[in-house]
Amino acid sequence: MKLMTAVVKFVQSMPRLFTWVGILSLTPPHPLFNLHLTLPLNSYIIYSIPLFSQCLLGTLLMTQERRKAIWAIYVWCRRTDELVDGPNASHITPMALDRWESRLEDLFQGRPYDMLDAALSDTVGKFPVDIQPFKDMIEGMRLDLKKSRYKNFDELYLYCYYVAGTVGLMSVPVMGIAPESQATTESVYNAALSLGIANQLTNILRDVGEDARRGRVYLPQDELAQAGLSDEDIFAGKVTDKWRNFMKNQIKRARMFFDEAEKGVTQLSSASRWPVWASLLLYRQILDEIEANDYDSFTKRAYVSKANKITALPLAYARSLIGPSKISSKVL
Ligand SMILES: CC(C)=CCC/C(C)=C/CC/C(C)=C/CC/C(C)=C/[C@@H]1[C@@H](COP(=O)(O)OP(=O)(O)O)[C@]1(C)CC/C=C(\C)CC/C=C(\C)CCC=C(C)C
Ligand SMILES: Nc1ncnc2c1ncn2[C@@H]1O[C@H](COP(=O)(O)OP(=O)(O)OP(=O)(O)O)[C@@H](O)[C@H]1O
Ligand SMILES: [Mn+2]
User: Fold this and answer.
1) Among 259, 263, 287, which residue's Cα sits nearest to residue 273?
2) Could you tell me the residue ranges of all domains in the chain?
3) Which end of the chain has the lower number of beta carbons within 10 A, N or C?
4) CA distance 279 to 175
5) Nearest CA to 107 among 124, 128, 83?
6) What pTM does this model have?
7) How far is CA 51 from CA 8, 46, 136, 286, in A?
8) Mean pLDDT per segment of 10 residues, for the chain of length 332 residues?
9) pLDDT value at position 12?
10) What does each C-alpha distance from 87 to 49, 90, 156 come to in angstroms?
11) Residue among 203, 257, 268, 304 to mutate when testing ligand 1 (max atoms within 8 A of CB)
């Protein structure tokens, strides 16, 4: 049995090995590790889909209890996203999402449908997480099924809230606010929301070409028009001066959301700050990479090099040493 466990553990760590080389030996165990032997293969795949690196990193250093909880939330989010983005996406109907939502309600009441739901049931029993952001994420998936254009930034903001801002709101109750923090709870949630929005805006700016090939334009239509651009320009995928100017403004706005998020990280409990800083610094660098690619998000996927990722870690660590007591409470 011990050998079996060791083998499974090794296999589990494989995909992470690919992404995180040296750091990988530090990656957390699976939230369901004890149950894992009985998981069906497809659940394993969901866990190991080229993993959202920040989440891996994101759970380093946290207490075991918190790590499991963040992983459970991550897995639920990933599965929700896979419904509309994954291989079965073309079969997903609003009814399937309704069913997914009723499963969510059941698991919140302690009636999980499968092992992965059980991990989240366990989490909601241990941490004061609210069901609303989870429901809102499903709402975001409904929106994704029926909508492929966004009139203005208000509409895009709402979409970003549904699919990513919600993740921030789900995570704060697990990460915890530092006991010495004088910031209002509201301001910390606000920062968490901003980090989700900033990440999603960055994701959209990075994937313009990929999304266009799926017939989707997430960029605000009115702002495109103001810049003298239209959907046709997006589909044509040419980097012109108009496009560069448009992107400069979009990047500027995404950075403002990252700045807003920064104010909240300091207020988190000390063990949670490092992973969140790392995730923030890494994702924000994608914006720098878009610039370095001369704004070509049509044919290039901006990514942060391994070297930059690794240097971000000590930087994040240094920042995480600053807690609420060292900054004036007037800042917030
Ligand atoms: C430490 C840490 C980062 C914890 C969060 C872990 C967690 C629960 C992640 C779930 C992410 C997830 C799978 C969301 C589903 C929807 C989705 C895919 C959103 C996009 C992520 C990027 O993924 P990817 O590049 O794979 O996108 P494609 O689908 O391939 O296009 C998002 C851009 C959004 C992710 C949002 C966050 C990670 C928000 C993080 C905010 C916090 C942890 C709050 C921190 C607290 C303060 C006070 C700042
Ligand atoms: N080198 C990198 N630099 C910056 N961000 C990265 C890098 N590698 C991964 N990421 C971020 O982590 C996310 C996860 O990347 P990965 O390629 O492992 O899977 P994924 O994007 O979730 O896959 P899929 O697109 O199939 O859902 C990426 O989408 C990206 O946002
Ligand atoms: Mn993805």
Assistant:
1) 263
2) 1-129, 147-332
3) N
4) 14
5) 124
6) 0.81
7) 17, 9, 23, 17
8) 53 41 35 37 43 53 80 93 87 94 97 93 96 98 95 98 97 95 96 98 98 96 98 98 98 98 95 91 96 98 90 91 69 50
9) 46
10) 12, 8, 25
11) 203
Mutate to test the pocket of ligand 2, among 53, 88, 288, 290 (most ligand atoms within 8 A of CB): 53
CA contacts within 13 A on the Cβ side of 294: 6
Which of 156, 301, 294, 304 is closest to 238 using CA atoms?
294
Looking at this predicted complex, what is its ipTM? Answer: 0.73
CB of residue 53 inside a 6 A radius of ligand 2: yes
The superfamily CATH assigns to domain 147-332 is Farnesyl Diphosphate Synthase (1.10.600.10)
The finding on whether 87 has its CB within 6 A of some atom of ligand 2 is: no
Residue type, 322: I
